[in-house]
Design a protein that fits this description.
single chain, 3 helices, mainly alpha
Length: 79
């Protein structure tokens, strides 16, 4: 088991990684695929905090990916 001081840092770091990957996905548009990069925060969160937290980060990653797809559609319609 990891020390509690390290475990507390895993949550914000995992969330920040999901946001960074989602932002990069949105900024690059559909030209560059970011799908595999979403696995990094999921693997890190699961490794450090367990299956349940990994599933939460996976859900947030899926929502981030879906958001970037919708944002790309909106951006393309208004361009």
């Amino acid at each position: 088991m990891i020390p509690e001081s390290v475990a507390r840092r895993v949550v914000p770091l995992s969330l920040a990684l999901v946001v960074v990957v989602s932002l990069g996905d949105w900024l690059t548009g559909v030209e560059i695929g970011f799908t595999l990069l979403y696995l990094g925060p999921i693997a890190f969160a699961t490794w450090q905090r367990g299956r349940t937290f990994g599933a939460v980060i996976a859900l947030l990653s899926a929502l981030g990916g879906a958001f970037t797809q919708v944002a790309d559609l909106v951006r393309d319609r208004h361009a």
